[in-house]
Each structure stands twice: as structure tokens, then as C-alpha cells.
Inverse folding.
């Protein structure tokens, strides 16, 4: 075997070993299987310009499982478009399709189309333009792939001398709902200040839900108050889907006092 | 048209990419369009203007494609947009390397776009404000934001800070144009230091040292690190000869006047100079006389002048006593601090600046190439580091000010090492990781800071918590980390292929994965597990925890009604292990009442001799012994596979760690 092939094989096998060890430490998840494709890809691209990006993707994939679909898609798309040889580009295409098999990602058809076309074309300028073109077509016709994990986020809370305050993360199209749980005892007067914006119209964009009650708010600043008892949960939900030139976002602050 | 395209193709491509960032950001609806979505394209356009006819590097196309794919997929995860935005910033840093060695102010052209991004994203930190307040008093020019002085931990009084007046005096001209001029002189100082570094190494290396950590941490900020690095470089570059020795002596004095922390660096410059003099019979008598006379001055100051010359922080006899204690009474702790200064994820050198791992084997090659210059670089840098650790002890990191700033004066040494290994493939991997760190810090400026609480702001972007930290780990883990670092250095020193490097890097990741904390650290509990409970101390500022003797982790306080911890995945028969302390309190775990009471700890004997008065530990939560309570969970305690822990009565309870042991 040529020394380059030895180097390539060792990179691939080391990657596989890292994957196995990751499973030993974190438990087996079927969703980590596409990482095998990324490590194979890493071995294929060792002497090319895209090595740095694929390497960073494989590192992040190993240590941060929440980022797996994103890093695998980036490594796959980049390799299928900018790979020097057909072998690399086909491997990139397989990586893209593998991730879509294990993570059902919405609006993913353009991704597969770009990866498959790139694997076939030999003209590099044509291939380079495929990703921006695919992105623009997605934006104009289908919309962008949505969040993989659609679970709502729970806001943190602190109580100081009977005064309650919440720290609420930003709500946007990648994190659509945040929940504010009531303390486990007592009756609480809670207020919430909502600042919704980033849109270019006055169509309702935020839903505030407590038990059976729901309020729908358009963009702007609103302050609402409620009474909460143990077991109650106040939900702040973004009602907008992705729309080009819109940066739909809800910033909220909330607090309360024990009655 | 063809000629126009031919002559300005590089400009058009870069400007086109700037436009593409701006438009695609809006098309995709990514967060932060008003700030990052404007300034990153502006920086790229700025770079296009500065590029001239320089051909674009080969990484440009992969970078454009990665960014385009990233922006397409930004909604997959709430934090992904940060990484997407970091891709063009990383590209900008790569561009900076490529243009650095071009004629016509290549270094400055390379630095300016990234410096611009660094300056607009780095918020003015507490040290800068303190310098500005002092500068405003000295120059009497600023009458707005910085005209009122405030007391901060470590200051002598509200009007007298712990900083010497040299640096404030130096930056005071900038305040003539108002508060916004605070960083004008520091930017000039940084650029001059980079220029000096370029003379020592080469322009590309100097730019790398500036745009990667630790240099990037305070590039252009009103802090003293870059000035110290510049002065150190200057001392190395000066020609030999007696008159230049005088200049070196003045540089050493200026370093001490700039900040007493640089005394190790200053002493090192003189010592290195002395070490390079040819051997003679009485060569070592002079430094010995120097050390004893310094000690004599300190003793006279302390016992005859009652500390009039030097304040506590500025090197009186108590400080000498502290150095003695740290070196001879607690050498293991001091060695541990030295280890964490290299490996801690929050503030350690190698974690933020992996390229330094490559530069160390490079230093061996540098030693072979120019042994005298190596001595002049190594002795001061090593003494600076040693003095920092021995004198500062557990507060060596200087957090919460920008991470890595303490290592900036050592840059000339590391840059010289990097010079020798720059072209190695393995070095490139470490450079890529270092670029990623700087790029992420630009896009997510909170990463510039850490709070010595076991959670690194950079890792938290990726949702990673690790048990490996200076505030919560065991020293043996440092040995493993040291072994891995050594392996990396050997691979870089010997190998010509990626295989060895990949193996070591992946082993490092496995090490990292294996350190996942068992159980829950109280300060890392997620919001769905904690309702209402606060962390103690209430401020995240690590200065408040610098002098804790027990543990320097923050603790979860359960003190009043409504506060609770809800532990998930608990079943009847499991054992809940709580590490906690309290003066005297009752805690309700499920339906079981637990009496919590712990004793005050004793002041470790080595500390009793330090200080001017008798030390007694006050009755504070941090001074109480952490006790381990094991609670066997009953079926009546559990509801929906979770158990609630609440405060019932008495003093507050402080929880450090919670573990659930499954029933057999």
C-alpha cells in the first residue's frame, strides 16, 4: 500500500474507533451511525482543501450529539460539491442521504438533489454554484429545514425573598416554544413582558397559554399578568413559520410575587 | 469589461461574498441581523478593499460553500446560527494569514478587518473601566462615563485602584476625544507589538499570534498584556552591547511599573542577558547580591516604614512570605495550579490556544537554530509563568477578565516556536482549531469571558458539560491530560503524516468524553430540575470565590418556600446521595425529613502565618464542611419517576452535588 493510503486508512480506522468509544461512554444511538460516513469521508479528503472543515465537523459530531445532523450535512454537502474526485463526491452524497434516513428533516429534498447532482457533474464551477442555488430555491419555494428537536425549552427561575424571576431564552424559528413553570407551592402573581418582532406585518405572531386560556399577540410590546398555582405552566409560543426576510423573534422577561 | 474583471477579480469575489453574507442572512431569517448580520459583511468588504490584487487562498471556495450550506440549515438547532456566523469570520482570519507577508503594510492590512470585529464585539470590561477612571483622573479630560471612580475587589480604596498609574497615563490621550477613545492608544500599542513580533519571527506568524488565542483575547483592548509582549519582544530584538543593556534594564523597570505581575518577565530579561555573558569566575555573585538587596528593601519597608513603599499587592514582605509558603509548604497545590493553567477548559492555555502545543516542539528546533535568542525568550517567559503561578496561586487565571490574557506576555516565545513548525500538516490541524475558537468568540462575545465555575462558555454553545475543571476535578486527571499533550507534541515533532496526530486528537476526545460528570453538579442542573433555587454566591464573579478554602464551586441554595429541586429518573429503592452543608436545617426529600448540620472548617495551617493579623474563618456557607447524605428512596417519595427536594425549616441548605444510585 502507498504511504498515502496507509495514512488514509489509519484516519478512517481511528475515526471508527472513536465512534465505538463514544458509544461505550454515551450509549448506542442509531442516530450516531452517520458519523461513520463522516469518518470515512475524513479519510478520503486528507490531502484536500476541505479537510479542515470535515475534520471540525467530525470533532463536533463526536463531542456534541445535539449538533450531529448539522455537522454531518455540512460535511456531506461540502464533500459532494467541492470534492476533487468522484469517489469523494459520491461519499459526500451518501453522507447526506444517510443523515436524512436517520433524522427525518423536513424540507430536505433540495439537499438530496444538490448532493446527487454534485456527485454527477464534473464541471467544478457548476458544482460550486449548486449549494447557493439550492439554498435560494429552498428559500423561495419550499422553506428551510426545520428544527430537529421540537421539544419546548423550560425557562429557569429564581425566588428571592418571595420575589420570583424567570430567565427566558429567545424564541425564534429554531426554538419555537418556552415554558414557565409555577413554583411548587403557594399562589403567585406573575407578569410577563413580551417583545415580539422581526416581521413586516401585523399578523398574530405569539401565543401565550396558561391552562385553558390563550392570548394571541401581534408584533410589538405587551405586558400581561396572571395568577399561577402549583402545577400551572405558562407557555410562550411563536406562531410564525419560516418566511424569507423575516427574523421572527420573541424576547420575554417575566417575574412574580407570592400572594 | 473583461479587463475590469481581470484586474479586479479578487476584489469582486470578496466584495461579492460580503454581499452574499448580507443577503443570505436576511433570506434565511437568521438571528442577530442588525449586528453580526451587518458587521461581518462590512469586515469582509473592508478586507476586499485591503486585499489589492492578492490572489485568494484555496480555502475561499470551501469556506463560501460551508457558509452557504450552514445558513441553509441554521434552523436545525437553536445554537447552530452561531457556528454559521463564525464560518466567514474564520475565513477572514485565514485571509489575514495569506496577506500578512505581502508588501505594502501587509501586516496591518491583515490585522485591521479582524481587529475591527474584535473591537466592536468586546464589551468594555471592568479592568478597562478602572484604567479609564484612573486615566480620567490623571489627564482630567473625561467628565462623563469614567469620571467617577468605584471600589472593586482588590482595590486599595475607592479612589486608589490596584493598578499602577503607568498604563492609565499612557492611554489617557485617547480620552481627549471622549470615552470612545479609550482603546485608541491600546490599538496602536497592539499594532506596534505585532510589528515587533513580525521582526522577531515573520509577518504571517505575528498575525497568527495576534488573531489566535491567547493574543486575540485582548487584542486592541485597554489592558496591559500586548504592551508587555511588545516590550519583551523589543528587549529580545535589541542589539548586544553595554548601552543596549541599559535600555533592557529600562524596559525591565517599565514592565514592573506597568504591572507588578510582570516582575518575573522583567527579572527574566535581566537574567537572560546575564546568562548570555561568557562564563567568568564571579559571574553569579551579582544576581545573588541583587536578590538579597531586594529582600532587604522589602524587609525595611515592612518593619521600619510599616509598608509605606509597597502595598500588599505590590510586593511587600507578606508577598514574599506567600511565595515561600506556596513554594515550600504547599508545593503539590502550586504544581496543580501550574497544571490547570495549561489544561483547564475555562482558562487553560492549551484549550483556547491549541496551536501552542505545536509551538513547543518547535522551540526545540528554535533552540538548535539560535540558542542565544532562545535563552532570551525562554528564561523571561518561563519566569513570568512561574511567578504568576507561585504568587497568584488559585487566582492565576485572572477571571472574569478575558480568558487567556495572562499568557499574552509569553507570545514572543510561542510565536518563535510556531515559526519552526508552521508548514507541518499537524500544525495546521491545531491552527484550524485555534481559528475556530477566535471566530466563535467574535460571533458569541460572551465566550471571551469565563467565571471559574466549571462551565466553559465556549463549550456551552455546544451543550457540553465536562467534569474536567480546575474547580471540581482531581489532580490525577491532569497527569492524563499532560500525557496526551506530550504525545501531541511528540507527534508534531516527529511525524510527517496525519495518522499519528489524528490518533492523539481522538484519544484526547475520548479522554474528554470519559470525564462526563457522574451525577449532577448543583450549578449545572437544568431549568427543568430547579425551581426558584439560587446559586450561591449570587454573583458569578469568581473574585468572590478566590479565597475559599473548601471548594471554589458555586452551590445551590435552598432557603425559602417555593424553591425546589426536582430529580428525574428516580425509582423506589434507589439511593439519593446529596453533598450539602448547613448551619442547622431540615430538608424535605420526597416525604422524608432530613436534618442537615455541618461544622465550620478549620483554616489550613499554612495560611495562619500569612497576613498581618490573626486569621479566623467567618461563619459563611463556603466555610462549612460539605457532608454526604445518603437517602433510600421510598415508593411514597416518588411521583412520576421524580423526587422533589425542598427546604423545610432552619438555615439555608447549600447543595454541591447530587447523585442517584440505582437499586440492584
Amino acid at each position: 500500500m502507498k504511504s498515502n493510503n496507509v495514512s488514509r486508512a489509519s484516519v478512517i480506522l481511528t475515526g471508527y474507533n472513536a465512534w465505538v468509544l463514544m458509544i461505550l461512554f454515551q450509549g448506542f444511538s442509531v442516530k450516531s451511525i452517520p458519523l461513520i460516513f463522516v469518518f470515512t469521508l475524513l479519510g478520503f479528503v486528507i490531502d484536500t482543501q476541505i479537510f479542515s472543515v470535515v475534520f471540525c465537523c467530525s470533532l463536533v459530531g463526536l463531542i456534541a450529539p445535539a449538533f450531529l445532523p448539522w455537522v454531518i450535512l455540512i460535511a456531506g454537502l461540502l464533500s459532494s460539491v467541492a470534492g476533487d474526485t468522484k469517489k469523494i463526491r459520491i461519499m459526500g452524497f451518501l453522507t447526506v442521504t444517510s443523515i436524512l434516513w436517520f433524522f427525518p428533516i423536513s424540507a430536505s429534498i433540495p439537499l438530496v438533489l444538490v448532493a446527487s447532482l454534485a456527485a454527477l457533474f464534473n464541471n467544478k464551477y457548476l458544482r460550486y454554484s449548486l449549494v447557493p442555488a439550492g439554498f435560494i430555491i429552498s428559500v423561495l419555494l419550499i422553506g428551510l429545514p426545520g428544527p430537529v428537536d421540537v421539544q419546548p425549552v423550560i425557562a429557569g427561575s429564581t425566588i428571592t425573598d418571595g420575589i420570583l424571576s424567570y430567565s427566558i431564552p429567545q424564541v425564534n424559528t429554531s426554538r419555537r416554544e418556552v415554558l414557565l413553570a409555577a413554583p411548587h407551592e403557594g399562589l403567585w402573581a406573575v407578569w410577563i413582558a413580551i417583545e415580539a418582532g422581526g416581521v413586516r406585518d401585523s399578523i398574530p405572531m405569539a401565543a401565550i397559554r396558561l391552562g385553558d386560556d390563550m392570548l394571541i399577540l401581534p408584533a410589538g410590546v405587551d405586558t400581561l399578568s396572571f395568577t399561577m398555582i402549583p402545577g400551572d405552566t405558562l407557555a410562550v409560543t411563536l406562531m410564525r413559520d419560516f418566511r424569507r426576510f423575516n427574523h421572527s423573534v420573541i424576547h420575554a422577561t417575566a417575574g412574580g410575587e407570592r400572594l | 469589461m473583461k479587463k475590469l474583471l481581470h484586474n479586479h477579480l479578487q476584489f469582486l469575489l470578496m466584495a461579492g461574498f460580503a454581499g452574499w453574507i448580507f443577503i443570505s442572512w436576511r433570506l434565511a431569517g437568521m438571528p442577530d441581523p442588525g449586528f453580526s448580520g451587518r458587521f461581518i459583511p462590512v469586515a469582509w468588504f473592508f478586507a476586499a478593499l485591503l486585499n489589492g490584487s492578492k490572489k485568494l487562498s484555496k480555502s475561499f471556495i470551501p469556506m463560501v460553500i460551508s457558509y452557504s450550506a450552514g445558513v441553509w440549515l441554521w434552523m436545525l438547532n437553536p445554537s447552530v446560527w452561531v457556528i454559521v456566523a463564525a464560518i466567514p469570520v474564520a475565513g477572514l482570519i485565514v485571509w489575514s494569514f495569506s496577506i500578512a507577508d505581502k508588501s505594502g503594510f501587509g501586516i496591518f492590512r491583515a490585522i485591521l478587518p479582524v481587529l475591527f470585529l474584535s473591537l466592536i464585539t468586546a464589551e468594555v470590561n471592568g479592568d478597562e473601566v478602572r484604567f479609564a477612571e484612573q486615566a480620567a483622573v490623571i489627564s482630567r479630560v473625561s467628565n462623563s462615563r469614567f469620571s467617577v471612580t468605584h471600589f472593586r475587589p482588590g482595590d486599595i480604596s475607592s479612589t486608589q485602584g490596584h493598578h499602577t498609574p503607568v498604563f492609565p497615563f499612557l492611554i489617557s490621550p485617547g480620552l481627549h476625544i471622549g470615552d470612545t477613545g479609550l482603546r485608541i492608544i491600546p490599538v496602536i500599542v497592539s499594532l506596534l507589538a505585532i510589528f515587533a513580533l513580525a521582526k522577531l519571527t515573520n509577518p504571517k506568524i505575528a498575525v497568527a499570534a495576534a488573531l489566535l488565542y491567547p493574543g486575540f483575547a485582548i487584542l486592541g483592548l485597554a489592558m496591559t498584556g500586548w504592551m508587555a509582549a511588545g516590550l519583551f519582544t523589543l528587549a529580545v530584538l535589541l542589539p548586544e552591547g553595554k548601552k543596549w543593556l541599559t535600555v533592557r534594564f529600562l524596559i525591565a523597570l517599565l514592565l514592573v511599573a506597568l504591572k507588578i505581575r510582570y516582575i518575573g518577565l522583567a527579572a527574566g530579561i535581566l537574567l537572560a542577558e546575564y546568562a548570555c555573558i561568557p562564563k567568568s569566575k564571579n559571574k553569579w555573585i551579582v544576581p545573588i547580591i541583587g536578590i538579597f538587596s531586594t529582600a532587604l528593601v522589602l524587609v525595611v519597608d515592612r518593619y521600619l516604614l510599616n509598608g509605606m513603599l509597597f502595598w500588599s499587592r505590590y510586593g511587600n514582605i507578606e508577598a514574599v512570605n506567600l511565595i515561600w509558603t506556596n513554594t515550600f509548604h504547599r508545593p503539590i497545590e502550586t504544581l496543580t495550579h501550574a497544571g490547570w493553567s495549561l489544561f483547564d477548559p475555562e482558562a487553560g492555555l492549551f484549550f483556547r490556544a491549541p496551536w501552542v502545543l505545536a509551538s513547543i516542539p518547535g522551540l526545540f528546533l528554535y533552540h538548535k537554530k539560535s540558542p542565544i535568542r532562545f535563552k532570551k525568550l525562554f528564561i523571561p517567559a518561563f519566569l513570568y509563568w512561574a511567578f504568576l503561578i507561585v504568587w497568584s496561586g488559585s487566582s492565576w487565571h485572572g477571571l472574569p477578565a478575558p480568558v487567556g490574557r495572562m499568557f499574552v506576555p509569553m507570545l514572543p516565545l510561542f510565536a518563535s516556536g510556531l515559526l519552526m513548525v508552521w508548514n507541518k500538516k499537524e500544525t495546521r490541524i491545531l491552527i484550524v482549531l485555534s481559528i475556530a475558537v477566535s471566530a466563535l468568540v467574535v460571533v458569541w462575545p460572551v465566550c471571551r469571558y469565563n467565571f471559574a465555575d466549571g462551565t466553559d462558555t465556549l463549550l456551552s454553545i455546544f451543550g457540553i458539560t465536562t467534569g474536567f475543571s480546575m474547580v471540581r476535578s482531581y489532580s490525577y486527571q491532569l497527569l492524563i491530560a499532560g500525557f496526551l499533550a506530550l504525545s501531541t507534541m511528540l507527534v508534531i515533532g516527529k511525524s510527517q503524516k496525519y495518522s499519528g496526530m489524528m490518533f492523539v486528537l481522538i484519544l484526547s476526545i475520548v479522554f474528554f468524553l470519559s470525564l462526563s460528570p457522574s451525577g449532577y453538579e448543583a450549578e449545572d442542573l437544568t431549568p427543568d430540575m430547579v425551581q426558584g433555587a439560587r446559586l450561591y454566591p449570587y454573583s458569578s464573579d469568581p473574585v468572590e470565590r478566590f479565597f475559599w478554602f473548601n471548594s471554589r464551586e458555586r452551590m445551590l441554595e435552598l432557603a425559602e418556600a417555593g424553591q425546589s429541586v426536582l430529580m428525574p429518573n428516580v425509582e423506589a429503592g434507589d439511593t439519593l446521595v446529596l453533598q450539602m452543608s448547613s448551619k442547622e436545617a431540615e430538608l424535605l426529600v420526597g416525604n422524608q425529613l432530613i436534618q442537615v448540620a455541618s461544622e465550620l472548617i478549620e483554616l489550613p495551617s499554612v495560611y495562619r502565618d500569612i497576613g498581618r493579623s490573626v486569621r479566623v474563618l467567618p461563619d459563611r456557607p463556603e466555610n462549612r464542611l460539605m457532608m454526604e447524605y445518603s437517602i433510600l428512596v421510598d415508593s411514597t417519595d416518588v411521583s412520576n419517576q421524580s423526587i422533589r427536594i425542598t427546604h423545610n425549616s432552619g438555615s439555608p441548605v447549600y447543595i454541591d452535588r447530587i447523585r442517584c444510585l440505582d437499586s440492584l
